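hey so u asked for the seq, here:
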Amino acid sequence: MKPYPLRTTSAGNPAILQFKHRFGIWYGAALGLSFAIFAWGVDSFLLSRMNGLFPWLKFLGGVLPCVIVGGGVGWLSARLDRPLLAMLLWAGAASVFAWLTVNLPLQITPRILDLADPDIQDLLHYTYYETFSTRFTVAYIWIAIFVSLAGLLQIPLSDSAVFSTSSFGRISPMLATLVLMAVCGTIVDGLNNEKLRGPVDAVNTTVQFALENRGREVDPAESRRMHLGALRSVGDLITPERKFIVSGYDQLLEQVQVLARFEGAWVECDLIVNQLIRCEQVGKPR
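ran it, structure tokens below
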């Protein structure tokens, strides 16, 4: 691939320039969409399998800003037509992605939940700790590495795609961003989402075990392993129809509270490093 001759060829051709600008929008939008899918979409899918309450909320809240920012930066990078400038622009976009990575699950989602389900409003006690700024820094560093690399590649890849005679040649840059964002999103998922998803999985697993063994004699060792004792005070409240959501956490995301919505009651469970400690009824009966 020889990007510089291609740019020289296209410099005086308005049709080619217009195509490259449109391609920049699609390239950036694809990058933003890919990031959202792997940063929050996978988490949302897994939460939906764990009886999560409004499991797709984070993904829906993050995908549109990422696509808009990505499309805008992709278009501007195509207009400037300089790989190093594109890299710097995408490094700036990484700060937006990093801000969403930290604030979407810890601040924005609870406010949306207040609107989506007014009954839950007084049962969520999210706190934004000063130490979360460190999480933003770590998220930004990782995101900037992969997003800046995608920005550096945008101009050479778009040159190749614009002059490609095959459909695959034109979509291959999008596939490159998909691979980069898959790695990036997986790393970002481990910073916050995984730490908040694990407790939900733990409570759901214990509740399912309790339902399957209700009325049976359970081996004491197995009972301890599954932390059945934590459900002792709410055993009569648990039902097959249930939904879970994180309702609180400490600054390290190690001590987490999970709110459970059963058919007739709200129950809150305390966990330390995904180990279920106790559960108690909260709020008004449903």
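The CA atoms of residues 222 and 228 lie 9 Å apart. The helical segments are 3-10, 14-49, 57-80, 83-116, 132-162, 167-191, 193-212, 220-225.
lmk if thats what u needed
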